[in-house]
Design a protein that fits this description.
The chain has 282 residues and is α+β, with helices and mostly antiparallel strands. It is 22% helix and 26% strand. It contains five helices and 14 strands. A hairpin with a 7-residue loop joins strand 12 and strand 13.
Length: 282
């Protein structure tokens, strides 16, 4: 009889813990109103970034104009940067203010680093046409994966058909800088009521743990021509040392669960905000 009484109690407690964890509040961040991207550059001079995510060493800011949402962040942590190049960088917009990954985009995509000169020259020509040429984007696959209603579609980031603008670069100190301009209409933000919250997710997977030079040579081919150290460019999904914690999108290879360490956890940032009307700045 006593066991009968305890079992429901334990079940209720376990359910309560799961509920609390799943409903854990996200940080609420201010989306600053700007007239255009030029104003963002001016604001940066006074305050480079307003917010910081300690686990991934990412500094970030969010802005909106009457037509666009702007997300800017930088990071100087090599582990975080390697995750972007290995697994891709996923950004999600959830108008329900939860952690849904039905609307968003991925850039760079997984293993986006390009080795062969011929492909790199094609990318460079596309960059020159748009006037956006830098050493990093010259060597990245130009495909951006757009996600609408959980369906994926690839498009050339530098084509006229791409609705999203993304700039990535390394500064002189080796910090990775990411800047994107997203039309409010692209993911339904133009349909929100004033002061209605939505959430932004910045995600990337885990990276392999290199235990010795032999393991690196056998399982982890690296590109030594990267403008920022060395990054895996192929074969990364064959390593048995991938870490747990990252649930990829359907069809993505999942990290294995051995040799777990906190520094190899995936990047999983979710923040809550709402659009700021121009009247709030007048």
């Amino acid at each position: 009889m006593m066991m009968f009484k305890k079992t429901p109690t334990l079940w209720i407690l376990a359910t309560l813990v799961v509920f609390i964890v799943s409903c854990k509040s996200m940080p609420i961040r201010t989306c600053k109103y700007v007239e255009n991207e030029t104003q963002i550059t001016q604001l940066r001079k006074a305050l480079p970034f307003s917010y910081y995510h300690a686990d991934s060493h990412i500094r970030y800011d969010i802005y909106n104009s009457a037509t666009h949402l702007y997300i800017r962040f930088d990071v100087d942590d090599e582990l975080s940067i390697r995750k972007f190049f290995n697994f891709g960088l996923e950004i999600y917009i959830d108008t329900l203010a939860k952690r849904k990954r039905n609307e968003g985009f991925i850039y760079p995509t997984a293993n986006a680093w390009i080795q062969d000169t011929e492909t790199a020259e094609k990318i460079e020509s596309m960059l020159i046409e748009t006037g956006e040429l830098n050493e990093l984007q010259r060597r990245l696959n130009p495909m951006v994966t757009l996600i609408h209603k959980n369906l994926e579609e690839n498009t050339n980031l530098f084509s006229k058909d791409s609705p999203i603008s993304i700039k990535v670069s390394f500064d002189k100190e080796g910090r990775f800088l990411y800047e994107t301009a997203i039309p409010l209409s692209e993911f339904g933000l133009d349909k929100l009521e004033p002061q209605q919250n939505f959430t932004i997710g910045i995600l990337s997977g885990a990276i392999p743990k290199i235990e010795n030079e032999q393991n690196q040579n056998n399982n982890q081919p690296y590109n030594n021509n990267s403008p920022y150290g060395t990054y895996p460019y192929s074969g990364v999904y064959n390593n048995n040392n991938y870490q747990p914690g990252y649930t990829g999108r359907p069809g993505q290879v999942q990290p294995m669960q051995s040799n777990y360490k906190k520094e190899f956890e995936p990047i999983n940032i979710w923040i809550k905000t709402h659009l700021t009307p121009q009247s709030a700045t007048d």
